Amino acid sequence: MSRRICPRVNFYWIFSVLFLVKVVDVGAYSCHEVKTAFQVRQIGPLKWVPETPGTDVELLVCKHQGPSCCTRKMEESYQVAVRRETLQNVRSYSFELKYLISGHATAFQDTFQYLLSFSQGHLSSLLEDTYSPLSREALPHVNALFSSLSLYIRGHNLSPRGRHHTLSDNLFPLVYVRLVNPGMGAAGKRGECLRATRQDINPFGHHPDTLAQELRHALGAGRALTLALAEGTEVMNATEHVSLTKECLRGLTKMQYCSHCRGLTLIKPCMGYCLNVMRGCLASVAELDGPWRRYVAALEELTHTVAGQHSLELALLGVRGHVNEAILHAQLHGPTLTATVNKVCGLSGKEPTTSVHTDPTPEVMTPTVTSSTAPPSVVPSIPPQEQLMGNLAHLRREFLSYVQRYKLFFAVLPEMLCEGETVVEDFTCWSGDGVVESYKGKVVGNGLQAQKQNPEVKVRSPNPELAEVKDRLERFNQEIQDMLLGLGQRESWGELGSGDTEDGSGDCDDEDGCQGSGTGAVKTFTDGRPGGSNNDKPIGSKPGGRAPPVVRVRGAGCPPACLSLPMALTLLLAILALQWSLL
C-alpha cells in the first residue's frame, strides 16, 4: 500500500513545484512597469504594450536576444517621443538665451529712444526760449532730424550725416533773415539759394561737421548693436527648429527607451554614451561655437563703444550746445556773412546796400535765465542731464554679466542635455546594449570632424540650414569688425578666450568630461550669478524661471581653497619645525 501511495505523493509535489516556478517566471517577466512608463510619458496607446514579453518580435532599433516588452508600433512611438522630448529640451535652453537677447534689445532700444526724445526736447527748448523769432519755422526741421535718427538707430538704412546737413541747410535761411538781418523779412526765393550754398558759405563754422561726426560714430555703434541683437535672436530661432536625422533618432531611441524593452525603466544612460549620442545629433549645432564666441566678443565691443565713456549720451546731449554755438557763430560773423551772401545770391530788394557794412557789432541773441527756472540747459519739464548719464553703462554691465555665461553655449549644449535627469552618476548605467559598470566606448568631441569616430551616431553630412546660419553669422561678424575700426585689435577678437579653441572638433580628454568610464565630470552649470544672489534676473526673465546657467569648465580656474593650500602647508611645516626645536 505504501509503495502505491509514495509515487502519487511525489508526483503531486513535483507538479506543484513546477506550477509555482511557472507563475514566478511569468510574474518576473511582466511588462507592467513598461506599460506604466508608456502611459506616464504619454508615448502612445496602452493597447500597444503587451502584458507579457514576446519572443518573436521583429524590432529595427531595440534588437536583443531574449524576450521583449516592445513591439514595432511601440518602437515607432518611442522615436516620435524621443524627438519631441529632445527638441523641447533644446528649446528650453535656447529660449533662455533668446529671451535674454531680445529682452535686452528692447531695453537698449528704449534707452536710445529716451535719449533721442530728451535731446529733441532739449534742442526745441533752446530755440523756443532763446531764438524765438525762428523757432516756429525751425521746429519742424528739428522734428524731422530726430525722426530720422530714431529710424536709423532702429536699423533703417539712413544717413545721419545727410539728415544733419539737411537741418543745417534749412536753418541757414531762418538764421540769416530772422537773426543776422532781422529787418529784411521773408527769405522768399533767396532762401533756396541760401539752402543750396550753405556748405560753400559755411555760416556755422566747424560746428555742423563736428556734430555730424559725433552723431555718426555714436549712433552708428548704437545701430550696429541693434542689428547685432536682432541677428542673435535669428540665430537662436534657427537653433530651436533644428532637425534631427534618422541616425540621430535611432541613437536617441536606443539610449532612452531600448532599456524599457527589457523591463528596465529606471536605468539611466552612461555619461560617455550620452555625450556621444548628443554630440552626434548636435554636430552641426556645435559648428556655431566659433562664430558665436566671436559674436559675443562683438557684443562686448559694441556695448563698450556705445556706453563706454558715456559716448552716446554725451553725443545726444551735446546736440543743443553745437546748434547754439553754430547760431552764435553766424551772428558774430554777421557782416562778413551778409557780404558773402550778397555776392553769391545777390542783394535783397528790402535790404539797403550799405546797411550790411555799417553795423560793426551786430546784436547777438544769448540765452536768458529767469529767476524761477534753472539754466537753459535744464528745463523744468525735462529731467536733469545728470539723471541720464550712466543709464547705458549700467545696462551694459548687466547685459554682459549674463551674456558672457553663454559664450560657450553651442559647445556645451550636449553636456547640458546629458546632465540632471537624463544621466546619473551611479554604479551601473545603460550602454545601449546592456547594463554595465562603465561605458567602454571612445567619447568623441564636438563638431562635424570629430563625429567620424563616433561609435553611436553616424553623421553623414552637415545640416544645410545650420550651415547657412553659420555663414551668415560669420559674415555679420566681419561686417561689424569692418564697421568699427580697430575692433579686430582687441583681445576678445584676436584670442577667443583663455582655453578656447577655434572649433570644437577633435577628440576630447578627461578634462572635457569625455572619460570612457561614463562616470567622469561634466562641465557644471549652476543657477545665479557667481558671488551674487539668485534673485538677480536678466531683463525679461520669466517669473520663477531658472537663471542663466553658469558654465564652468574644469581646468579653467582654481577655487579659493586650492589657492590657500600652499600657505596651509607652509604654516604646517613651520609649526612642526617649532615643535621639533622645543624638543
From TrEMBL:
Coiled coil: none annotated. It is a lipid-anchor; GPI-anchor. Residues 350-378, 491-550 are annotated as: Disordered. Pfam families: Glypican (PF01153). Residues 364-376 have a biased composition (Low complexity). Belongs to the glypican family. This is Glypican-5 isoform X2.
